[in-house]
Amino acid sequence: MNLVWVREKHLIYILEMKYISKMFLGSLILTYVCLETELFWEDSDEFDFTLVRFITFLLIF
Hints:
The chain is an all-alpha fold.
């Protein structure tokens, strides 16, 4: 087995796990923020898109 190939596969695996864990943590934070603020409450008059955009931007980068 080629050692370079193994290193490349290992690096790709690490990057994928890092991305998945970042997205999972971000989705947990987004869920918490939406539940704690008035984003999804029934009695709220407006939907706050600015907070959702900001959190989504942080998740992407």
